Amino acid sequence: MDKVKTVEPWLQPEGKEPDTEYLAPDEDMLHLAGVVSCILCGACVSDCTVMEVDSNFLGPGALAKSYRFVSDPRDDADSERLTKLNEYGGVWDCTRCLKCVEVCPKKGCPNGQDNVTKRKGDGIRPYEYKWGPSCQAFVDSVKHSGWLNELMLPIKSFGIFNIKAMIALIPTGIRAQLNGKRPPLIHKKISGVENVRRIFEKVENKK
Ligand code: SF4
Ligand code: SF4
After folding, report:
1. DSSP-based three-state secondary structure for 201
2. What share of the chain is helix, strand, coil (3-state, %, to 5)?
3. Which pLDDT tens digit goes with each residue over 142-174?
4. Which helix (H) or strand (E) holds 170?
5. 6 CB neighbour count, 10 Å cutoff
């Protein structure tokens, strides 16, 4: 409950108080039906994979509550709410494992990031899942050797013929070298790489 309180789960409208109640169009509230039906059972919090290892994370319950108010057209505190959610422990610490969605008895628990970003990305950098060269390079590397080839990842992501990007990578490479963090020049396969490949085959055959 303490974490829920930190997101100030109450309406904060600005301007002149209406004579009757604060009204919102039905269509603006329909998408909130899920989070409004939250019964604060805490199942999402108990099962959140990040909260288990990071007590600083706001967690799905608080994020669901925050989303409920960020997306309410009658609320005028979006900017402050989103700024807080953008900080350490906020929305970006959610890994989108979807465990909270799976266990929510009300099916009203959009996962931590979706809570806030799908509807109100303004103020928070948009979170996009785009399959691009870096994703493909990541997958290819793990499939080939069983682990990530960090040396080749940026090169394959930007493209080796992207001279500008390659030059821009040089200072990072030098820093990595000086700090003893340069990935190995020869990227060896892990033992048991065939088991990793079997997982890939299984997933690919399911598509
Ligand atoms: S999706 Fe995010 S909030 Fe939900 S359980 Fe996973 S880490 Fe926690
Ligand atoms: S599991 Fe669902 S109903 Fe329970 S606290 Fe989380 S969002 Fe609310």
Report:
1. helix
2. 50, 0, 50
3. 999 999 999 999 899 888 899 998 999 999 899
4. helix 163-178
5. 13
Confirm or reject: Cβ of 103 under 6 Å from ligand 1: no
Helix (H, G, I), strand (E, B) or coil at 55: coil
ipTM score: 0.94
2-117 is classed CATH 3.40.50.2300: no
- Is the distance from CB of 61 to CB of 40 less than 8 angstroms? yes
Using alpha carbons only, give the angle 89, 93, 96 rounded to the nearest 5 degrees: 145
Q: Are 3 and 48 in contact (CB under 8 A)?
A: no
45 CA from centroid of ligand 2 (Å)? 8
Atom of ligand 2 at shortest distance to CA of 107? 2
What spacing in Å lies between the alpha carbon of 2 and ligand 1's midpoint? 18
What is the tens place of the pLDDT at every residue in 94-129? 887 888 888 888 766 655 555 555 444 443 443 334
Question: Ligand nearest 51 Cα, by number?
Answer: 1
